[in-house]
Structure formats: structure tokens, C-alpha cells
Amino acid sequence: MCQLLGMNCNVPTDICFSFKGFACRGGRTDHHSDGWGIAFFEGKGCRLFLDYLPSAESPIAELVQNYPIKSTNVIAHIRKATQGVTSLANTHPFQRELWGQYWIFAHNGDLKNLPEAVGKYYRPVGSTDSEQAFCLILERLRQRFAAAPALPELSRALAEVVREIAGCGVFNMMLSNGEWLFAHCATKLHWLVRQAPFAVAQLRDEDLSVDFSALTGPEDRVAVIVTEPLTANEPWQAMQPGELLCFQDGMPHPVIF
């Protein structure tokens, strides 16, 4: 299955270190080789990089590893195709507009017999179950709320549609509008929060370590969410199957179904 990576912070932060290890899993240290993508929120804008080449071989992935784009919310994906051919149209993350905001979504898993996203606003461009699920989520939210609701109401509505989609198969996913990041675990997701006192972190997929105490301020807080832990010496927490978390300002908050 695919690999997911997310970052949520209380101050704009670059993801170069984590992405360097993550990109190795696209054809070097793992066999996920059907394309990759990454999205960075910057204010109301969003930078989206996609490539149908394996991330371990992609010149665009190399650029991202060495380009310190600072963001408070990032979602990245390495694809191992289960539905749909290898193409840019089928490459995650996917982007749509809702309530005057960009929304970014990525999915790991395989979904069967998804309900059709009945409505007039959102249709898949590609042929993946993932993009169909994303369109279904946004269509349901748009039908329920004419304008962006407060986070508690949004969380409850999202939990309902996530539960419905999860009943159709494996649904590990990440979703963000640039203010927060939702993560749902069906089979496998891990997270950690980096905050003071910062220490040295050692990547598992690359011979590289970073002393975060030399790069961060005492109030900085960074949450990293990933399919498999990226580092060998940090306290990663495993999400439970069926768990939905909302990350805000670098901290996780459980969403009760």
C-alpha cells in the first residue's frame, strides 16, 4: 500500500529532513514506485508538486529535499497503485476548493463500492478510489454547511463521512485546509511531537541526523504523522485502527465518533 507523511506546526517549518527519509521509500528502501506528491500550505496559497516517477529517482523530489519551504501544514504521499494507472491525474495529494479554501487530501488503502458523490460540485479527474473518496467528503461537507463551520461542528460532520467511507475498505488518510490536519487510521499510522527540549534525530532510511536544538526556538512545536516511523531514536506513537485525530498548532486532539 501507499505511504503517507504529514506535518502540522505552530510556526512555519520546513520538512526537508523528514522528506529526505520519506522519499527513499519510493523505490529505494521500499517498493512504492507509482508516483509521489507533496503539498505545502503558505497562507491562503498552496504549493503542489506531483510526479509519476518514483520519488527516489525524481528530480522534483530532489528539489523538494533541498528547498526549505516553510509551512504550518504539509501532506505528502508515495503511491503504490491499487486502482487507476500510473499518471499525474491519479497522483496524490489531490487539491480542491471548498468555502474559499484550498483543501488537500491523500489516502493509503483500497476502497470498494464507495457511494457516489451525488451533487454538482466535485467529480474525480482521475480513476482512483482515493479521489472519489475525497470528492465524496467535500460534497457531503458542502451540502451540510453553506460556509465554513467552527472546528467542533466540522469535526463531527467529518467523523460521520469518514466512518461511512471506512466501511468500504482500508481508509488511512490525511486532510488539511491549511489551518489544521486531520488523520484517520485504518491499519497503520504513527505520529510524534517535536518540542523543547529538542534533541538529535536519526533517519531510518538514510544515513542522516539533525540536531533540532540548533534549528528551533523554545516555543516551536512540530507534529509529524507518517505510515511508518521515519527516525530510529524518537518516541513515535501508533494510532489505533478507527482513530481520527485533528492536529492543530503541532498538537493532536482526538475526534470522538
Could you explain how this protein is built, in words?
The chain has 257 residues and is an alpha+beta fold. It has one domain: 4-Layer Sandwich (Glutamine Phosphoribosylpyrophosphate, subunit 1, domain 1). Helix content is 18%, strand content 33%. It contains four helices and 15 strands. It has a seven-stranded antiparallel beta sheet with strand order 3-2-4-1-12-9-13, covered by helices on one side. Strand 7 and strand 8 form a beta hairpin. The longest helix is centred in the middle third of the chain and has 16 residues.
Gross CATH architecture: 4-Layer Sandwich
What is the distance, rounded to the nearest whole angstrom, between the alpha carbons of the first and last residues? 26 Å
Instruction: Tell me, rounded to a whole number, the average pLDDT.
Output: 92
- Radius of gyration (Å): 17 Å
CATH class: Alpha Beta
Structural class: alpha+beta
Total domain count: 1
Q: What is the spatial order of strands in the main beta sheet?
A: 3-2-4-1-12-9-13
Q: What do we call the CATH homologous superfamily? A: Aminohydrolase, N-terminal nucleophile (Ntn) domain
Helix content: 10-25%
The ordered H/E elements are EHEEHEEEHHEEEEEEEEE
Strand content: 25-35%
Which fold name fills CATH's third level, the topology? Glutamine Phosphoribosylpyrophosphate, subunit 1, domain 1
Number of strands: 15
In this structure, how is the largest beta sheet organized?
7 strands, antiparallel
